Amino acid sequence: MVFSSRNSGWVERDVRIKGLGWMNIELKNEFVAAIGEYVGTVLFLFFAFAGTQVANVPAAAVVNYQPAAANILYIALSFGFSLAVNAWVFYRISGSLFNPAVTLAMVLAGAISWKRHAQPTLSLSPRN
Predict the structure, then answer these.
(1) DSSP string of 73-124, one letter each residue
(2) CATH number of 76's domain
(3) 24 inside domain
């Protein structure tokens, strides 16, 4: 059900993902979590590497440019804030399991299932 301002009330409408009607609800949840992990990781890396590029570009054409401590701090903060923001945005969708090693530790501790460990590991593993 969705709220419609035109009818000034709740209206019965199908707002589900098209083409996934054959999946059961548990498989749909795992699929959405895997997509959320992938998108969250891409955004995390994009913003972190963008901050790194901004920090490493010299202000003027300097021949022997060496990064200062402020540049290294800027890079560290860009990675930290990028991970914090993406974890905060995606924790309800996928659990924000951006690190497969942490996910494995959670499986071994019994906090999540092996099936939930497989989806971020497969979606985040590098392809050659």
Answers:
(1) HHHHHHHHHHHHHHHHHHTTTT-----HHHHHHHHHHTSS-HHHHHHHHHHH
(2) 1.20.1080.10
(3) no
Instruction: Copy the structure tokens of residue 119.
Output: 């989806």
What's the total number of domains in the chain? 1
Q: Which domain holds residue 106?
A: 30-124
Span 11-58, pLDDT tens digits: 555 556 677 667 777 777 777 877 888 888 889 889 999 999 988 877
Instruction: Provide the token pair at 42.
Output: 């891409």
- Judge whether 99 lies within some domain: yes
Cβ neighbourhood burial of 119 (10 Å; 0-12, 13-18, 19+): buried
- Overall pTM > 0.90: no
Q: What is the pLDDT of residues 65-103, one digit of tens each?
A: 676 888 889 999 999 999 999 889 888 877 777 777 777
| DSSP 8-state class, residue 7 | T
